[in-house]
Amino acid sequence: MKNNKFGSDEMADRGKTNPNLTADYFFSLDFSKLKISLEDMFKGGVHFGHHKSRKNPCASEYIFTTRNGINIIDLERTKEKLEKAMQFLTEIVFEGQEILFVGTKKQAKSLVRSAAKACGMPYVVERWLGGTFSNFSIISTRTRYLREGLEKMKKGEYAKYTKFEQMKKAEELEGLERKMGGIKDMLKFPGAVFVTSLNEDVLAVKESKAKGIPIVALVDTNVDPAGIDYPIPANEDAVSSLRLMLSYIVKAVIAGKDKRLATEEKNNKKEEE
User: Fold this and answer.
1) How far apart are CA 238 and CA 108, in angstroms?
2) Which of 5, 14, 78, 160 is deepest in the core (most CB within 10 A)?
3) Pairwise CA distance, residues 195 & 138, whole Å
4) Owning domain of residue 31
5) pTM to 2 decimals?
């Protein structure tokens, strides 16, 4: 298999893993050189949908053709929808809001975590905790407890406890970190949610809709894109497709941060003058 910086030449097998993929993949990319490319999307297998027997009729508008029983996604539509989604995310971040990355499917977890960390955004890669949005005040209480506990642990404030008590406290904090570590610094509702799998993360989508939080999501040929604010038709299973699409999302977030920083520096300079 030949690899280039943002895609791979072989992706006939949906969900095929890449043994060379690392959890820090996105930290090594030069996003200034990343362009939306139909060629890269083709090489990354973004166009491979599911078998025609699994097609959701509502996804028909994004299907270009069917080949050997496999629905082929129209990459021109992918490019069009991706550009709109990236513009939206850039503006949201420019306004000072966060993007919550959600991806609990097995092959997406490490990629979503790495992507979110690379652009400093909150994330959920384990089971979505019911009430994350609908009972945000309760979740916030638990994340505050986690933050404070980790800070006390760092400062050695638990040293006064017995070894057994220290062990139990460490286990408790590790459990909380595993469940909600990705959102422990999320102090308010995010400006938008990015979801990699609509079928896998139904509850996240449901709570986002209920709270009026805009949703950007990858839309495969087996899902219904209705109700998604910014659907991006793409293969959501193949690792090469996921990492390429996540790269574009991270680029949009970084662009928003850079734009906000440049504006703040410009305003500060005016005030000094």
Assistant:
1) 9
2) 78
3) 23
4) 25-130+189-272
5) 0.89
